Amino acid sequence: MAGQTRMLFRHVDEPGLASIDTYRRLGGYRALEKALRDIDPDELLSSLEDSGLRGRGGAGFSMGKKASFLPRGDMEKFLCCNADESEPGAFKDRELMSKNPHQLIEGIVIAAVAAGIGQAFVFIRGEYWEVADILDRAVEEAYAAGYVGENILDTGHRVELVVHRGAGAYICGEETALLDALEGKRGNPRLKPPFPAIQGLYGGPTLINNVETLSNVPHIVKNGSDWFKGFGTEQSPGTKVVSVSGCVQRPGNYEIELGIPSREIIYGLAGGPPEGHEVKAWFPGGSSAPVLTADELDLPYSFESMADAGSMLGSGSIIVADENVSIPHLALRTARFYHHESCGKCTPCREGTNWTVKMLERVISGEATPMDLDVISSVQDNIIGNCLCVLGDSMAMPVGSMVAKFRHEFEAAIEAGRDAAPRPLDESPTDVKPVPVGAAG
Amino acid sequence: MSPEFPYLPDEGVVVVQRGPEPGGVGGAYRAFGETLRGLKTTFARIIEGPVTIQYPEEKTPVYPRFRGRHKLHKFEDTGLEKCVGCSLCAAACPADCIRVVAAENDPDDRVSAGERYAEVYEINLARCIFCGYCEVACPFDAITMGHEYELADYNREDLVFTKEMLLAEPVERTPLRREGE
Amino acid sequence: MSDGWVPEIKPTDDLSAADRRRLVESMRPEDAEPVPELSEVDIPDELRERIESAMQKYPEIRSASLPALWAVQRHYGWCTPEGIRQAAAVMGVTPGYLESVATFYDLFHTSPVGRHRVLVCHNLACWLRGAEDVLDAFCEAAGVDPDEADHIGTSSEDGAVYLRGFECLGACDIAPMASIDEHYYGPLTPEEARTAVEQLRSDARPIPDKALAGRETAGGPEPEPDPRVKEGEA
Amino acid sequence: MTNGEEITLVVDGVEVRAQAGMMLVDAAKHGDVEIPVFCYEPKLGQPVGACRMCLVEIEGIPKLQTACSTPVRDGMVVYTQTDRVQEAQNAVVEFLLVNHPLDCPVCDKGGECPLQDISMGWGPGKSRVIDPKRHFQKPIPLSPLIKIDRERCILCYRCVRFSQEVAEDEQLQLLERGASTFVGTFDDRPYIAPFHGNIIELCPVGALTSDAYRFRARPWDIEDAGTVCTLCPSQCNIKLTVRDERIQRVLARDNFEVDDGWLCDKGRFGYQMIESPDRITEPMIRQGGTLVPVSWEQALEAAAAGLRDAGERTAAVVGGPSSNEEGYLTQRIVRGPLGSPHVVSTYDDAVDRELLLELSRPQLAASVADIDRAESVLVLGTDPMHSMPIIDLRIRKVVRRNGTRLAVATDRPTSIDGVAEETARYSPGAMSAFVEALAAETGAEVYDRAEGELGADAERIAGILRPGSTVIVWAGEPSLAVADLAAQLDAKLLEIPAGANGRGLREVGCTPVAGPGLSETSTGLSPTDLCEALTEGDVEVAFLVNADPVRDAPNGPGWNEALQKAKFVLAISMFEDGSTKHADVVFPAESYTEKEGTVTHPDGRLQRVRPGVPHPGNARPMWEVLAELAGLLGDETGIDSAGEALAAIAQDVPFYARITEGEIGGLGVRWQEREAARNFPLAPGARPERSSVVVPTSHVGTTGGVPGASPAPASDQLQIGTYRDLWAAEVTDRSPALRFLRPTQTLELSPADAERLGLNGTPEVDVRQNGTSLRARVAIRERIRPGTAFLVDGLGDGAGALARHAVEVSAAEGGE
Fold first, then answer.
1. Chain B partners of D138 at a C-beta cutoff of 8 Å?
2. C87 falls within a domain
3. How far apart are CA D224 and CA D211, in angstroms?
């Protein structure tokens, strides 16, 4: 099928790929051997930097550069693989880990060696219990085969790897919250600076990377950074796994090169909406990206063009809504998710998500007025940029964009809600009534 | 410089224009006109009867916004006191004559609506200047200025009005003065 | 006089002053929960072993709080106060600390739950494909209130099934889906939801053909390999 | 955090000078710019940046930054008033009020509420929220002392951070997540910890309120009166909230050099004792077996007559809470006109004057703030939680934030064991042996290095003490070894005295071995001997100044008998207690809220105690009464004011020379830092070559006190140590709020001993020694050294007399 370029997903349906023997038979762990035996860590690091590999978790920061921020020295340094994939619409890491766990382990070990790290963790979300079991087995195999542990392949390198299971909190995907959760605390984001690269896990320098990013590492090491740059665009080389879900015929993970038209992904690869339906709105980068409309389907799918369109590529998860979907309901569903997942540490996010949900509920129940839509918009503006981490913005941006782009639908929803449940306007919609004031004098 | 005496005519003498001679209609009007105009008001009031108020048998009427002795209020429906003992009146009082000591409500035996009620509420009327700031400050309209002004007493201590006294229906009602009266 | 705006004053709660006084008087210094003395807490050996082995895996003991709570939940079915106390005693932290952590995360239950835990995803992708109907079907079959299940989770009366509308489970490719006893199943129809509940009631493995574990990659069959992507050898 | 480098930044167009590394919020204050904050509180440690109230615009940074967590740099340009900033501030206030009820008129915080102030100053003025707010059960008791109203909580994290990062009890926690988060405890248990009252003061809204202060007053009804709490040696600086001449509450008055701005619950809620209806408010004379109120003239005359008759057979016991003035005048009366050398202010048997001088040398004295600067701290012989609670918080702070290395060497497990790098346990009474071993380990050659367990412990402890930057916080048996240890390590000493003003009383002459200013004087009887002499009749008159030896002395029953046998007892006391029941004349004592005078902190800081409320009933300033009494006995002191009393002390104590109330001021002054410290007397004679360990002889039981050896007690015996529990105090009994904390007698022993003696599962035991017996609950504690067990002293049941004795323990017979 046109459009797919399988690098990470190569041999994905090979039976038994998750076992070390199959993985090795297909060329696995050769990159690690090469990295440990033939390249010295500094060179390794610079080749990762040269490759231009950008973080696949959402922010899109250069992975090699991030690793080079870690201070040199003998202090204990940590690597955390962020496998807390909780963004609605994203499921690429699950597939990467469950189908090919050794690719990830190999990437982790190489990255750890390159950055002089001795202790690595995989923070996997608690819901992925099955995947964590697969990963646990793979780590055991890797330990047994000497790819992980005290003296890897007799080269004197040490990398310990622990799979740490989360317990259900979206916020732990935020890198500093992930650190707190890994330290056994409530997963609250920390203030930045200090950045994790300087002072992260247990106060030590910490490199945090996404599963997909680390899974790319063996390929770069094996084939060289120039080879890697042959894929994708100049700014973001390599392939990208795009998760397509929602109102499409073939939801799933598609590994593509960035820059192909979005229409090709949604209609070409994923089959587009069911017969007779049209795309009405789509999230180009998970539920936290501002929505785009059908008019914007022909934009090339890349970091830059999505940013130009006022949205973002994020983790590369496309959610498609067709014309049967009510945007106010979609907005409420989105807001509810962030309201539920807000950690509660900073005020604008905690109260802003909470308030937005209440207002959207009123929109749907018909207790709102069009003026409330202005309040909703203004509340989203008040959240954006004022929070401790990006979770608040993640709600404010899509909800704000929905109100801006589909305001007529919200107004219609208010009307419809009012007709369905008529109630006098002067009656307070809340159950809190002020104490009446008696006649004075 | 005063002229020498005896002075001569035409020298330093100012000639003054004199009014008309008395007599005639004009003269009569000039003599009684203003007086009659005054009497018109007098006779007009005669038919209204006497204006002397037989105080203390009768009370002096006051304007609606007259600021007399304070009153505390209760909710008509629940009978709870409106005052929650927030002490804002005491803070606003320029004469420092209000003393509030609050206490916690017992939900089983509620005095006011909130958590708090005024256990002690005293106004020292000997110090009060009846400025009405307490009324303005009150967030619950619990205290208002009434129309009672007969507040003299033999003992200063008796001028300290307690909550119970302020809550009680006033015994004496003072007639209201209407606009234009 | 105020301009008609009146502060919002609500009556205090239903706890009477006498009750409150009794509550205060019942509080003894020894009721506080500092770090429990290990010798005063009776801990099942298996639980203790699990927690201790988790503690060894990390540079700092507190990192073991999530694994310890998982162990407690495995052992008792939910994070019982007694279980939390036991874990706290082993780890040398206060039970309050562990409870605080436990209540932060969605997957820890701090109240009793049914035998089989069904988490029905109702986030965007699943919702777009009819998750609400699936959840309703589950609730109807289990005989629980959908609204309660949707918001806070609830268990069926016979204690067989715990149902909860869950935020994204990370399996939008099989939407609408559910996680049953930590295994993923989807895409589900309301009919299958009802079947699953019946199977769970008899403790059978539910709807096996819908299990994610047996599925192929959703991206379709392997496309023509890109010539640039080389075979295994370096 | 700051390195002292001065930098310049521009805040709202005004150039501001500040130290590099300071947080912007603090630096802006130098330019008179206030940036609103909720969660920021430097006392709680690193900023968390959670409330987002302090957002400001910084040139060159696109996003608004939190001023509470941004360290200032040279040349930084900051705007706090731009439209963008104001919009953000309005937004945050609006968000905070989404769930905050607007019930200010009933809220206890109304009028002194930061949320009110900030809403007024930085808020939008009007809320657009019409949606329902979240509901919780309204004020529920979080502990018997604090109520929590979760609806009002704005989740600023302050209280939780206090519990986790300052007091480190970790009982108070955030539960649930996001907008449902609330503050609570495990399983809804009460939050009971010795410092938990501080969260009331930390709370920026009315969510946490003091049960005792609830609805008692509004900020405009009250007056503040600053003074010093003399309930323990911490001498924390406090602020009394006074309404209608009654104390309504006690707040902390920040003094970094003393208390860091914290207060323990004893200091915070103990004020109720002062209003106790049981207080003595009139002078009284015993007539026909009962005390009857009389006029001051009669009482003074009777007192003077009693003292005059006894003359040199008088002994004075000055209690811990007495001020320097009271102590000075008492010893002046006793030493002057009466000619007696017997003045004591502690029940521990005194050291000789040389050792006293050695240990009190100004060069050796650590200030409290020295703990912050030290690289290692040794806690020796005491649990600061019970003896000087605020030090406990400070030690935790330096360990947590400065990485200070902490060693603890005590007989009983302490509350700071958990944060210590090394701990060592010795048997009760073996402190001196341990200190000698430790001194030897650090290189003092006059001592022999110890063998076996003792040696190993000493080596471990010595291993983490850093020479040149150590503070030794100690209490217990004074010996030259302590001074030698300090000398070896070039360390500084902070001794925790038994009484609240123990150091001051000693320095103004209330010790049998030295006169005012630790001058040479004829030596009086030590407390134990004094008790015996009173019983025997060698001393006839006891003059008790704020002292209750029957309760406070380890040998309480002995003192009871001694006072009963005494011919005449003059007591100055706040309450009728075990000692005043033997008194012939009683003067009403002042509390620290009524007193005027000075006290000396254990680190040598003179502080002023100032009256905040009037004297109850007929009570009078005690300096005045004592000066009058001195006059009646023939010593015309000429003291007519508290200031003159201080001047008299300054004259007699050379190292306090010329100190005045003005110089002491609000924050106090350490005498070691004044010029006059040079007048500190030098020890006479050369230092003895080898220490003669001064062990309180009379307490030495069958096994205690033998250096280096603690022979295992017989198989059915335990060696007893006692400790003075923080709550085993009169203030606990007399303050209704604190009464629930009164400890019950508890025998703490190790699991091994419990096993050995078959006490597992036994709720109560009888502890017997040589005919005396007392009943105690059983508590099994992991960290207790096998063979030893501990009882609470100060409960009035004579447990103190068992200290260092081997006792027999058996399950209680009969039950209650």
1. 115
2. yes
3. 19
Say if residue A123 is in the same domain as residue A160.
Answer: yes
Check pLDDT > 70 for residue A15: yes
In degrees and rounded to multiples of 5, residue B60 shows phi and psi of -70, 130
Strands D314-318 and D65-66: unpaired
Q: How many pairs of residues across B and D have Cβ atoms under 8 Å apart?
A: 42
Q: How far is A321 from chain D (nearest CA, A)?
A: 28
Q: What is the per-residue pLDDT for B169?
A: 74
Q: Tell me the C-alpha distance between D247 and D268, whole Å.
A: 11
Which other chains touch chain A, taking contact as 3+ CB pairs less than 8 Å apart? B, C, D
Gap between the terminal Cα atoms of chain B: 58
Topology classification of domain D712-811: Barwin-like endoglucanases (2.40.40)
pLDDT at D642: 94
Question: pLDDT tier at A441 (50, 70, 90 boundaries)?
Answer: very low
Of D504, D503, D506, give the one whose Cα is nearest residue D494.
D503
Same domain, A403 and A356: yes
Per-residue pLDDT band for A255 (boundaries 50, 70, 90) equals very high
ipTM: 0.90
How many domains does one find in chain B? 1
* β strands within A140-213, DSSP E: 149-152, 157-165, 206-210
Average pLDDT along chain B: 84
Query: Which CATH number characterizes residue B155's domain?
Result: 3.30.70.3270
Which distant-in-sequence residues (6+ apart) come within 8 Å of C167 by Cβ? A86, A88, A170, A337, A340, A341, C106, C121, C122, C123
D220 touches B: beta carbon within 8 Å? yes
* C167 inside domain: yes
Residue A440: list chain B partners with CB under 8 A.
Answer: 73, 141, 144
Domain hosting residue A34, numbered range? 20-229
Domain region containing B101? 70-167
Range D134-275: architecture per CATH: 2-Layer Sandwich (3.30)
- A89 domain residue, yes or no: yes
CB pair distance less than 8 Å for C15 and D138: yes
Which pLDDT tens digit goes with each residue over A178-198?
Answer: 999 999 999 999 998 899 999
**Number of C-beta neighbours around residue C72 at 10 A:** 26
- Residues A161, A53, single domain; the answer is yes
Check if A441 contacts B (Cβ < 8 Å). Answer: yes
The CATH number of the domain covering residues in D284-348+501-679: 3.40.50.740
pLDDT more than 70, % of chain B: 86
pLDDT at C12 over 80: no
Do C85 and C138 lie in a common domain? no
Q: Would you call C18 an interface residue with chain B, using a CB distance cutoff of 8 Å?
A: yes
Taking the CA of residue D20 and the nearest CA in chain A, the distance in Å comes to: 16
Quote the tokens at residue D63: 């996003």
Residues of chain D positioned with their CB less than 8 A from the CB of C94 = 169-171, 186
Closest CB to C16: pick one of B108, B114, B141: B108
CATH class assigned to D354-495: alpha beta
Residue-wise burial string across A25-50, b where 16 or more C-beta atoms lie within 10 A, e elsewhere = ebbbbbbbbbbbeebebeebbebbbe
State the Cα–Cα distance between residues A245 and C227, nearest whole angstrom: 28
Cβ–Cβ under 8 Å, residues D199 and D208: yes
pLDDT digits 0-9 by tens, D266-276: 999 999 999 89
Q: Is residue C3 part of a domain?
A: no
Compute the distance between CA of residue A52 and CA of residue D409 in angstroms, rounded to an integer.
Answer: 58
pLDDT at D292 over 60: yes
Q: How far is it, in rounded angstroms, from Cα C12 to Cα C29?
A: 27
Contacting residues of D for C32, CB less than 8 Å apart:
143, 171, 185, 189-193
Q: Taking CB atoms and an 8 Å limit, are B113 and C6 in contact across chains?
A: no
- Mean pLDDT across the stretch D154-166? 94
| Residues A84 and A203 occupy one common structural domain | yes
* Contact indicator for A373, A312 with CB cutoff of 8 Å: no
Average pLDDT over residues D551-567: 91
